[in-house]
Amino acid sequence: MKLKDVVKIIVFSIIGFVLTMGLGYATGMLGVVPSLYISCAFATIIGAPVFVILSRSVGKRGVAFVYFFLIGVYYTLLMGMWPILIINIVAGILAELVMGREINYRAANKRAGYAYGVGMFIYSFHAMVITYFFGTNPAIVKMMTPEYISFLKNFYTPINIGICALISVIASLIGASFGNYIYEKFFASKTKKSNL
Question: Model pTM?
């Protein structure tokens, strides 16, 4: 990867982070329970074009991993939510596996959208993962409060986990299609011209 590719990934990951955070706060105004069901769904749908445009315009292996890794770094640096870095490393690895060969980054297929969907599917369970695996960490308890951690443990029943997973899968598919549509409609011809 060249320096300009790294800079592009940084810029696009900041845009993705801002969209994810902004939509998370916006859905938080609906209340805690609706927010737990849909906050990542909206972020997946709206953020997918950012990722698809990035991955297809850079066109090199590693974009998916670095994108999700950087978003985890931003959460760590700005909010102290270091478990999200671990979750996003897993999300980035799985997104890279979905992308497969390097040619898929440039190909006019739906791999980039699906890779983003898989990464966001993993990310969508960050509250549950933090609660169950890091909920006793003093820094996390201080940040989330013991009452909120207790609420989340009671919320994440098998039925609610299934509902969240279903919503996340649907949002991932919609986001992937939306991202591919936006790229094809507005960016594909520009990328082809710049590669000539």
Answer: 0.83
